[in-house]
């Protein structure tokens, strides 16, 4: 097949070995040609939803429509990834080339987990991509003022915060406006109403909706795979399966503090350039916490993430890894 038949498109969903690619000429079901290596890590050898790929049409195809062959993947401008619980040292790329991650949590059923919000904000910053905090199910909120107060620090850090209700349609227009013309990925725990919000933003999408388990108070998975949906207002929106944990991938202990927006004004004031804002003396971030310039909740959230971040300088050196763990345990005892 000649080079002039090569086209570019966006991977909008993946089912088994089939990659569905949207292009100017429509959507085409593609397979892979050869072996791909998107980056240096073994878990990123295949295209993911959001990738821009080059492909060639394979002719008339079969009873399911025309087929194509993916021959290349363009460099990614961003990724949203988390560590893979099923792999000790692996990670999973949820989506590529997203403009923003919309973090959807519920006012109730299930209760909001602000430490999980902080983890997802770090993952978005690593992307790098913008992040929008969406607090859904506000119709169930019994103490609205408490939620407003809890969200004040995030607004103060410059994050866009949208309070919504798929039932009353509160905030739906504001959320839809934030998605217009962008590639957005919705991420959050199961049962927070992500799928219902998608249906509100884009009426007519036939997406399955489920309820929160009465016995556990936690959501059950509704979405089983990540798929991008074209928005009538422009752009694409993707709903992801719910998560209950979100491990941080691709960041060192020394870099983590710089991904906390409220820490940034104080980072230049630490005694040590490699300060992790944990056990070191003369830490400007810890001083800011004592003065109330950084909330203690955010600092505690940072410390919990820091405990799970591997020291990149220690990889491959068991002695250093052991020393790093001992320092962390000692600092915990001191607090």
Description:
The protein is of the alpha/beta class and 335 residues long. It folds into 3 domains: 3-73, OB fold (Dihydrolipoamide Acetyltransferase, E2P), CATH 2.40.50.140; 79-239, P-loop containing nucleotide triphosphate hydrolases (Rossmann fold); 253-334, Orthogonal Bundle (Ribonucleotide Reductase Protein R1, domain 1), CATH 1.10.40. It has helices at residues 114-126, 144-156, 172-179, 194-201, 253-256, 284-290, 296-308, 318-334; strands at 6-15, 18-23, 26-32, 52-57, 67-73, 79-83, 91-96, 100-106, 130-136, 160-163, 182-187, 227-230, 235-239. The strands form 3 sheets. Strands 10-9-8-11-13-12 form a 6-stranded mixed sheet, with helices on both faces. Helix 1 (114-126) packs across helix 7. The longest helix is centred in the last third of the chain and has 17 residues, at 318-334. The chain is globular, with a radius of gyration of 22 Å. Mean pLDDT is 82; it is low at 208-224 and 312-335.
